[in-house]
Each structure stands twice: as structure tokens, then as C-alpha cells.
Amino acid sequence: MTDLFSFIALSLLPASFWPHVAEGLRAGDPPAAVLDRLLAIHWPGEPDQRSALHARAQAAMDRAQRQRITPVVWSDAAYPVALTTIVDPPPLLWTLGCVAAFSAPAVAIVGARAASPYGVSVAEQLGADLAARGLTIVSGLARGIDSAAHRGAVSAGGVTVGVMGSGVDVMYPPEHASLARDMQQRGAVASELVPGTPPLPHLFPQRNRLISGLSRAVVVIEAGEKSGSLITARSALEQGRDVLAVPGNVLSGRNRGAHALLRDGAKIVETADDILEEMGLAAAIPGGPAGTPAWQAAPGPLQRAVTADPVLACLAPGESCDLDAIAERSGLTVARLLPRLLELELRGLVQRAGGGRFIRFDSPC
């Protein structure tokens, strides 16, 4: 059984299994061994369960090949490092578009589907401004705030990722098919669900943890008291991500959820600079259609600072280390460590080895 086939089969297990799947993968166990162990625990002596799972995995693999959908598995260096830090990461992501979209620091922008013109305008502006500074914009491709944030990033020539509550080949809502195609030019549409999965209601709250998990910060715009965006915000807090909110009209009731976040300590957002400041990222310098992030600038004081980064001192040349080990050695939390490692990766000083592990290099490559 190939690793890809095993990863697909693991992704078809109930979502409640995924913390156990992640535990095995983090320990370095082959995906086939993790699968065999879980099948033996939960369905001992039931070969029909194994056969049915294998048939579904084969069907998913065949459908993905026909539609040119790319599976990015846990062990792949392209698998988003940010996702490896959450409790229940998916064994793989099905993607349409550019897999490289997962490599840059990301900000999630989420909010109401029935958004006001003000909310839509703010989401588009923030999406454009952050994308122009080299950050990836993550959202859920839903109506309202989500799609406005994606459109803003696309308009700035930037990168944006849409996380689906269905298979990536089942567009929901269907009127966003054109937007999704535009996003795939530089970004991607992604899902943990096998191709062909319909947009069932319970799948959308489940996918919200991926929107926050992919991101360094979550910005909430126009969330009501029972908004699904608050699920994303709660996931972000559980995952150690920054949560920010845009203030709005107090009369409409559309902003009560976002204002509750502000009362609980979320940082107020008026401009993209507020988000960058909270994330600890330098502003972009001019250059290129989407700007050039400061950590990709020409050699100078920033490069010297990155080169001397104490995080590098925690890694021996050629040593492969996971985030937990680096965090323990450096004294940084995983939430603060991750952007530092991404900066070092962009400078060519560290390289991802897959499964959330990094290798140090003595000189840029």
C-alpha cells in the first residue's frame, strides 16, 4: 500500500480519530502502520470495514487524478507547517491551484455572509492591503466577508487560499466558481474532504479550525452573536493564534459577536498595519505587483538580524527538528516561533523536511 493511499484512507476515518492519527504521524510512524493500528482498535475482526475504506480511498484517488486535484500529504514538505501545530490536523489537503500558496505567513479574514456594504468594503481593503504586503489571505469562500477578502487579495495580485466545507471539485456556493478559478492563478482552493464530498451543514464548522490553523492571525468582521466566524475565533484562541476584530455599527446587531471579542481583549483593527503590528511582522517595502515582504528584502540590517536569529542556535546544521523541540530549546511559544521559522525559511537558512520539521543550513541556498 502506498503512503498516499494510506493517507487518503486515514482522512476517511471519523474526524474524532484525527488527534490519534496526528499523534502517530508526529511520532514518525508510517501512515500504513497508523491506519492498521486504528482499524485493529476500533474494528477488530471486521475485514469488511477495511475493504470498504480501501474502496473509498481508491475512488477518491481516481477522481482526484481525473480532475487534476493535488493531494498534499502530512509528510510532504509542502504541507502547511502551521497546520502541524493544531491538535487535529488533516492527514492531507486536497488542493486546486498553487501548492506554494501555503508557504507564506497567512491571515484569515472571516465574517458575516449577509454582510453590509461597509463590511464588504473593509474586507476587500484589508485583503488587498495584506496581500500587497506579501501575506496570504485565508478564508472560506462563503458569501459576504469571505468572498470580499478573497477578491481583495486577487485584485492586489496577491495570494489567497479558500478552505472548503466540501470537496474542492464541488463549488459552494456555485456562483463563486469564477472567483475560485481566479484565486488558483497564484493561490489555491483546499479541503480536507475527499473530492466529490457534498457541502453538508456539519462540515462547515469542522473546516473552520483549518481556516484558523493555516493562519497566524484571524480577523473577524461583522460577526453576529451566533456567527460561524466565532467558531473560527474560538479555534484560533485554542490554537494560540492572534484574534482581532473590526468595530462596526452598534445598531444593526450584525456586529455583536465581533464587539464581544473586542470586549474580551481582541485587538481592534482599523488598517492592515494594526494586523501586522499584532503579528510582529515588519511592513512591506515597495516592489512587484503584490509588494515584497521585508523578510524578502535585499541584504541589510534585517537580513543580518535574521541570520543571527537565536532560533538558529537551537538547530545543529543538518539536524531535523520539529516545532515542539525547537520551542523547548528557544523558550518561544509555538505561536511565536512559527513566523520566525517561516522568515528563516524565506531567507534560505532553514528548510522544511515534512511533517512540521525543519533543517538548518549554515548559508543561504
Task: Describe this protein with a few key phrases.
365 residues, alpha/beta, Rossmann fold, Arc Repressor Mutant, subunit A, 3 domains, nine-stranded mixed β-sheet, three-stranded antiparallel β-sheet, 15 helices, 12 strands, globular
Description of the molecule:
The chain has 365 residues and is an alpha/beta fold. The chain folds into three domains: 3-97, no CATH class; 99-279, 3-Layer(aba) Sandwich (Rossmann fold), CATH 3.40.50.450; 298-360, Orthogonal Bundle (Arc Repressor Mutant, subunit A), CATH 1.10.10.10. The protein has helices spanning 3-11, 18-26, 31-42, 47-66, 117-132, 145-155, 177-183, 203-213, 228-238, 256-263, 272-279, 301-307, 310-313, 323-330, 334-346; strands spanning 70-73, 92-97, 106-111, 136-139, 160-163, 188-191, 217-221, 242-246, 267-268, 320-322, 350-354, 357-360. The strands form two sheets. Strands 1-2-6-5-4-3-7-8-9 form a nine-stranded mixed beta sheet, sandwiched between helices. Strands 10-12-11 form a three-stranded antiparallel beta sheet. Strand 8 (242-246), helix 10 (256-263) and strand 9 form a beta-alpha-beta unit. Helix 1 (3-11) packs across helix 4 and helix 5 (117-132) packs parallel to helix 6. It starts with a helix and ends in a 5-residue tail after the last strand. The model is unreliable at 283-307 (pLDDT under 50).
